[in-house]
Design brief:
mainly beta; lipopolysaccharide transport protein A fold; 12-stranded antiparallel beta sheet; 1 helix; 12 strands; 5% helix; globular
């Protein structure tokens, strides 16, 4: 198989999933402090690294992460970088103005408070009500609610491992007199920036 076909196969699993414009993550989350609970913690003030282990629960406003282990590092500006691991680690966030939650899973979850981005790795899955996407790596912006979902290029020829799987519910009809409901489902678009280069 040529290099370009290999690269193209690796990119076949890339999708951009864009939440309905009517739904937004809770804007106030970014301004809330981070709280952590665990069975054990080791704090290194010199390196600005804290390691939490044993039924860890991290919360920031409506954001909640549950994992077996969470490592938190802080940069010079005070922003936190959290890496959660477990089988499976879980992320949850409430959608602005609704009672709905976005939930995500992975064996490793990386939450960057400065970039406001959450990455799910290995058996990655994101759900909202009946909408459900799965892949090897899912990148989610808590600010814009844009998803990037990647398959596993190492298993590009295996439909069970190398490709992205998505269940997107039909979108309700919309007219000027009848705007889309607040629980409008995910819309799915192909990326306009796909190339034959690996992501």
């Amino acid at each position: 198989m040529s290099q370009s076909r290999t690269n193209a196969a690796a990119l076949c699993g890339l999708l951009l999933l864009i939440w309905s414009g009517l739904l937004h993550a809770e804007d106030a989350d970014r301004d809330k402090p981070i709280h952590l609970e665990s069975d054990r913690v080791v704090v290194d003030d010199v390196k600005q690294v804290s390691v939490f282990e044993g039924e860890v629960e991290l919360t920031q406003g409506t954001i909640r992460i549950r994992a077996e282990k969470v490592v938190v590092t802080q940069d010079k500006l005070g922003f936190k970088h959290c890496t959660a691991t477990g089988h499976l680690a879980n992320f949850r966030q409430k959608q602005e103005g609704t009672d709905q939650y976005m939930e995500g899973y992975g064996e490793r979850i990386v939450y960057d408070t400065r970039a406001e981005v959450v990455d799910f790795y290995v058996h990655a899955r994101v759900k909202r009500e009946l909408d459900d996407v799965q892949g090897d790596h899912i990148e989610y912006s808590t600010r814009t609610e844009v998803f990037k979902v990647f398959g596993d290029p190492a298993h590009a020829n295996d439909p069970n491992k190398g490709r992205v799987h998505a269940v997107i519910q039909p979108k309700a009809e919309e007219s000027p007199d009848k705007p889309a409901p607040k629980n409008a489902p995910l819309t799915i678009e192909s990326s306009p920036t796909l190339t034959n280069e690996k992501p």
